[in-house]
């Protein structure tokens, strides 16, 4: 904002002098014989900037401040020069001094807080946990309470023992998902887990057969150890079982959070002896992600072509396949005509 001032003796012979202060132009009127000292007095009177606070940066004349080396320097020679005024008003200086005094005033010492020990974050461990983990978790949206299944999978992923074993063996699994009990249940057995293509996808049977409850956490975690061992060994040979037992021991040893506690009023299920962990490291079948986040999985006893089929079609094919196996099991109780599990 520009401030204009005209001296009482202004006439046609007066000169106009513009000074920039805080980025704003301020225009003064002076007589032809006015000097630099007159400019200082006018700034002090109109802008409340006392001479000790004044500094004038004048083009081609450099820095000028009271007391001036040449106080009689005529302003007529500066009318066309760029002049910048640097200085604080009396009010600004007073406010600054008050702030300094308040900051410097002695304060009452408050209660001494106990020192908090510094936490040393293990960045290497954090980086490994981000690399060696289950990168995607997915529940089945067509089953009841999919959000509860997702929390179950999150609990497995964040289990201290599982995380330690994943880091130790450098296991990185793209997808951990729940298994649909209806698609992996036969008259003779119930599959508890599947490992596809050496850890590309791991499926776990979380629910009871009636879909209204969940199995024992530690049983499912033990199944997960079994499936992780299939990341290295496919057949159930001595190498596989040695690694499986090693992973189980490591998970139990590093389970400092005591994972496996039952939470809430959920129904848990202990598997019977005739149930199976899996059918070995499985590299066959299909795993298709349907629209809207639906997970469509092939049947264990015979592949269900997914492709363009809807979820209802896939489930119907799976039910037909299951009924066929049950019928064959009744007609051939000796197992001679039943399909291989």
Automatic annotation (TrEMBL):
Coiled-coil regions, chain positions: none
SUPFAM superfamilies: Ubiquitin-like
Domain called WLM: residue spans: 125-324
Gene3D superfamilies: Phosphatidylinositol 3-kinase Catalytic Subunit, Chain A, domain 1
PANTHER family: DNA-DEPENDENT METALLOPROTEASE WSS1 HOMOLOG 2 (PTHR47795:SF1), UBIQUITIN AND WLM DOMAIN-CONTAINING METALLOPROTEASE SPCC1442.07C (PTHR47795)
InterPro entries: Ubiquitin-like_domsf (IPR029071), WLM_dom (IPR013536)
Biased composition range(s): Basic and acidic residues: 317-334
GO terms of molecular function: proteasome binding
Protein name (Swiss-Prot/TrEMBL): WLM-domain-containing protein
Cited Pfam families: WLM
Chain intervals for the UniProt region annotation (Disordered): 317-341
């Amino acid at each position: 904002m520009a401030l204009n001032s005209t001296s009482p003796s202004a006439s046609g012979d007066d000169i106009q002098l513009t000074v920039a202060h805080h980025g704003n132009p301020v225009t003064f009127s002076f007589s032809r014989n006015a000097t630099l000292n007159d400019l200082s007095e006018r700034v002090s009177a109109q802008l409340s900037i006392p001479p000790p606070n004044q500094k004038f940066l004048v083009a081609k004349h450099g820095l000028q401040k009271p007391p001036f080396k040449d106080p009689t320097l005529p302003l007529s020679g500066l009318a066309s020069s760029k002049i910048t005024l640097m200085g604080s008003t009396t009010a600004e200086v007073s406010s600054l001094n008050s702030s300094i005094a308040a900051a410097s005033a002695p304060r009452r010492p408050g209660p001494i807080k106990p020192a908090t020990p510094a936490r040393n974050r293990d960045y290497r461990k954090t980086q490994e946990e981000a690399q060696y983990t289950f990168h995607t978790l997915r529940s089945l949206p067509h089953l009841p309470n999919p959000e509860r299944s997702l929390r179950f999978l999150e609990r497995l992923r964040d289990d201290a023992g599982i995380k330690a074993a994943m880091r130790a063996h450098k296991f990185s699994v793209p997808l951990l998902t729940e298994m649909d009990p209806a698609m992996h249940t036969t008259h003779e057995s119930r599959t508890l887990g599947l490992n596809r293509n050496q850890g590309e996808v791991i499926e776990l049977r979380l629910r009871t057969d009636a879909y209204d409850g969940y199995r024992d956490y530690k049983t499912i975690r033990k199944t997960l150890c079994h499936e992780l061992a299939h990341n290295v060994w496919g057949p159930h040979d001595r190498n596989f079982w040695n690694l499986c037992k090693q992973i189980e021991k490591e998970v139990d040893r590093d389970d400092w959070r005591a994972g496996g506690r039952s939470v809430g009023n959920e129904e848990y299920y202990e598997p019977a002896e005739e149930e199976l962990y899996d059918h070995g490291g499985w590299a066959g079948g299909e795993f298709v992600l349907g629209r809207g986040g639906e997970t469509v999985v092939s049947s264990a006893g015979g592949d269900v072509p997914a492709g363009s089929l809807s979820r209802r079609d896939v489930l119907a094919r799976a039910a037909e396949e299951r009924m066929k196996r049950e019928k064959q099991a009744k007609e051939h109780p000796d197992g001679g005509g039943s399909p291989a599990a």
